[in-house]
Amino acid sequence: MADMMQFDLVSPERRLASVEAREVQIPGADGDMTAMPDHVPTITTLRPGVLKVAHAGGTDEYVVSGGFAEISGDGVTVLAEEALPRGELNQDMFDRMIQGLRDRHAKAKDAYVNEPGPVDEAAKLLADMVAVGSEMGLSSN
Amino acid sequence: MPSLKDLKNRIESVKSTRKITKAMQMVAAAKLRRAQDAAEQSRPYTERFNAVMAGLSASAQGSDTAPRLLSGTGSDQVHLLVVMTAERGLCGGFNANIAKLARLRASELKAQGKTVKILTVGKKGRDALRRDYGDLFVDHVDLSEVKRVGYADAQAIAKDILSRFDAGDFDVATIFYSKFHSVISQEPTAQQIIPASFETEDGEEAGASTLYEYEPSEEAILADLLPRGVATAIFSALLENGASEQGARMSAMDNATRNAGEMIDKLTIEYNRTRQAVITNELIEIISGAEAL
Given CB 3.0 to 4.6 Å as the disulfide criterion, which of B92, B226, B245, B274 pairs with B86? Predict the structure, then answer.
């Protein structure tokens, strides 16, 4: 079937999804991208964001905290560090994720005083996560 | 010759021991199923990850700009041995086998004049190695509070190891754990994680041959993924270890239960013989007393 492709979402702890998908919207580190069947083979890293999968039965959304995606002509495999179906994300978990990134940002600030690269990176991750939160209607304070 | 009462007491105590080992065996069997399940669940991630990394690292290996996690520091003077064992004993040779392998490696490296540092994960490994190599310990990770090993635990260990690597504390890191084959067979394994080497299960994995576009750049992705590779390797080792531990405990407790059963049979025969001897003795005394009259 040319208009469908295999989509797998796996995290280290479990396999979250394995379906035939029509298109997959991926929160890439350099910007969102939508993968459809016969996409050019691509490997991209992820930023914290929402992954949307359109398949025959509707659209599924997952919150991912990072990881990478491998797109080949006949399928998409997303290897996420941490991933949850959108409905399962609650304030507690979100707080924990935000806190982790805040710590990382603070640590980066301490460790790389004269080197803005890693600090900016950590700040970006944090900002992305906050954006995810506001989309979900979760507070990030 | 033990008295009847002694024998009876011993039979009772062996019986209660058997009850305990039987219960432990059943608990281990239930936990084993869960541990195997967890290992099963993580396999797709690990396999895909390694396939992608194999492709990426193959192309980066040759270049001068390859990250240090992949190419190494250029020396192999200081070795870090990460010895992962269980928090609890009573699981046959499980902990001892891992410790033995680590000890062997440590003495080999020392004979070659290398510096050895040891990081232990799990109490039993620390106890086993303390006497010979206690002065080489750099740290210990305690997982006794952890009911179910999660990826976060592996990440914490990886972070600790990576920060040591960045600080230049060691050149080569190797993890020691036990690979799970079956309930009766677990294989102690040493796996080098820094500098990283990735092998796919079958050489024809698509990741190695297809030409990919990379976003951001190939180097950036590699630099991002290598630290995750360390965490992934540790996570799968922890899961394998978990399954191995329960498998080893299950067969150890199965043996113990069987031994207890045999012991009870033997003691019961001895008990019956002794009782018969006592009766016979009494009869002889009565008869010879009657004859004497």
Answer: B245
Q: Looking at the domain covering B28-250, what would its CATH class be?
A: alpha beta
Q: Is A44 on the interface with B (CB under 8 A)?
A: yes
Q: Which of B91, B99, B129, B194 is catalytic?
A: B91
Q: What is the pTM for the complete model shown?
A: 0.85
Q: Which CATH number fits domain B4-20+254-287: 1.10.287.80, 2.40.50.140, 3.30.70.330, 3.40.50.300?
A: 1.10.287.80
Q: Are A78 and A69 in contact (CB under 8 A)?
A: yes
User: Which positions ≥6 away from A61 have C-beta within 8 Å?
Assistant: A50, A51, A52, A53, A85, A86
Which tens digit of pLDDT belongs to each residue from B237-282? 999 999 999 999 999 999 999 999 999 999 999 999 999 999 999 9
3-state helix, strand, coil in chain B (%, to 5): 65, 15, 20
* Cα angle, residue A47 at apex, residues A40 and B235 outer, rounded to 5°: 95
